[in-house]
Automatic annotation (TrEMBL):
<dbReference type="Pfam" id="PF01381">
    <property type="entry name" value="HTH_3"/>
</dbReference>
<dbReference type="GO" id="GO:0003677">
    <property type="term" value="F:DNA binding"/>
</dbReference>
<keyword id="KW-0238">DNA-binding</keyword>
<dbReference type="GO" id="GO:0005829">
    <property type="term" value="C:cytosol"/>
</dbReference>
<dbReference type="InterPro" id="IPR010982">
    <property type="entry name" value="Lambda_DNA-bd_dom_sf"/>
</dbReference>
<dbReference type="GO" id="GO:0003700">
    <property type="term" value="F:DNA-binding transcription factor activity"/>
</dbReference>
<dbReference type="InterPro" id="IPR001387">
    <property type="entry name" value="Cro/C1-type_HTH"/>
</dbReference>
<feature type="domain" description="HTH cro/C1-type">
    <location>
        <begin position="9"/>
        <end position="65"/>
    </location>
</feature>
<protein>
    <submittedName>
        <fullName>Putative phage repressor</fullName>
    </submittedName>
</protein>
<dbReference type="InterPro" id="IPR050807">
    <property type="entry name" value="TransReg_Diox_bact_type"/>
</dbReference>
Amino acid sequence: MKQHIGEFVKEYRQSHVLSQTEFAKSAGTTQSLISAIEQNNYGRHLNMRNAEKLAKAMNMTLSKLLEKVDF
């Protein structure tokens, strides 16, 4: 079973001892978007472009991220 993207991002970020702000900076996005994703409250703001930014920040391809998570 795939993990929800919010849980996946939060677990990744915490395991790498990153604040939401630090992770957002590495992903080239905002802290508010990371917070919304982690709270499963991202609505239309999590598009493929932002998903690709998250994947790159976690050192994986977008396709690998999509294999691991549900949106």
